[in-house]
Fold this sequence. Notes:
Layout: H1 3-32, E1 37-42, H2 47-58, E2 68-73, H3 81-90, E3 95-99, H4 101-110, E4 116-120, E5 141-145, H5 151-162, E6 168-174, H6 179-191, E7 195-201, H7 207-216, E8 221-224, H8 228-232, H9 234-243, E9 248-250, H10 254-257, E10 262-265, H11 268-283, E11 300-304, H12 305-310, H13 317-322, E12 325-327
Parallel strand pairs: 1-2, 1-3, 3-4, 4-5, 6-7, 6-8, 8-9, 9-10, 11-12
Antiparallel strand pairs: 10-11
Helix pairs in contact: 1-2, 2-11, 3-4, 5-6
Amino acid sequence: MPFDQLKRREFFTLLGGAVAAWPLAARAQQAAGKAPHIGLLWITQNENTAAFLQGLRDAGYIDGRSAIVEARYYETMLDRLAELANELVALKCDVILASGPYAIEAAIKATSTIPIVGVDLESDPVASGWARSLGHPGGNLTGLFLDLPELGGKQIEFLKEAVPGLSHLAVLWDSSIGLVQFRATQAAAHAAGVTLQSLPIRGLEDVKDSFDRAARERVGGMIVLSSPIVLRQRSQIAALGIETHLPTISLFTLLPRSGALMAYGPNLPDMNKRAATYIDRILKGTKAGELPIERPTKFELVINLKTAKALGLEVPLQLQQLADEVIE
């Protein structure tokens, strides 16, 4: 069974069991006043949600028994984020897990007192004004943030190894949140002697048009910068890459597992599982502002050889040997 299908099945099995336990068990725990309320503000249910829920279980928080999980998914409706964040505040959640910059911004605007644990690949929490410093956030936000725009240089390097003679690259990026990443990638491309074609998107409807434009411009490959939109549409992006004969690389390691060519970045499910340990420490009394914000230190190279074959590429053996995962 393909990885995505397997993970989705595991996720819905896990979530389905949890949901079945919510109505009766949750009311019983609420009546006893013992179970902490954990709010989730997420774009959609996926492998990362499953990893976080598993992390909660590992820490002893079983939904409907030793914790009440209140999940809110905004899907494509960014205009509903404020409403959903306010719902979690009204439910008097003890802590909120917000995934991605859109959700974090909404949670911060909704409450200055409820602890927020963020998982974000796009934002600098200090520059954004969400924290005083990484070591001592000081407010009600902590979590795991990437904000390592220099990854663009490594992605260009790996893509050039996989695509001989690559000189013209497209960059697909979310113009609402990705400017810092785009500028860093632009600088890395200039240093590598590669021409860059900017393909900004603002919503799901822009993705296909961007690939069509890249095909018309005859670019040799595409860097897909991180965004909740990109993660949600990863299967579409992978399929469009093959359809337009365009090799793609992203920092989302889930993309090549969905059929894209390559990825170099952190293990996002692991980051979300680690976020559960932040929840645990907060529920045990540590203030969010006293928990240092973490940045991932381990990055994975994932290559999909099946996709390479479909694109007519021979990925060098040396590059395959560097990979943490080779999908055949």
